[in-house]
Amino acid sequence: MKTIAVALTMITVALTLAAPATADDDTDFLQVLNDEGIRYGSSGDAIRQAHVVCQLFDERDSFATVQEALQQANRKFSRDDASYFIGASVGVYCPYDKAWVHSSLG
After folding, report:
1. Burial code of 46-70, b = ≥16 C-beta within 10 A, e = fewer?
2. What's the whole-model pTM score?
């Protein structure tokens, strides 16, 4: 239960901080990650992974499934890092998935 509460808090914070989509979504996304101190490999890899996050939510995968996939792809990501990355991805690239993300938390 604590994990769900932490995940929901991290997503809410990330969605709040994530800038609305602009002509330069990639810069906005990377800035959100940098501001929170989320370490990622290359910026290109982070952007590609963000699009995969959106694709998985478009396919109606659960938050837990997406979080696990991110942690497997990024061994250095904590659960909180993955949650924040998900929130930033959704906030910048697929804000239409916000309701699904919240509902998939259970």
Report:
1. bbebbeebbebbeeebbbeebbebb
2. 0.78
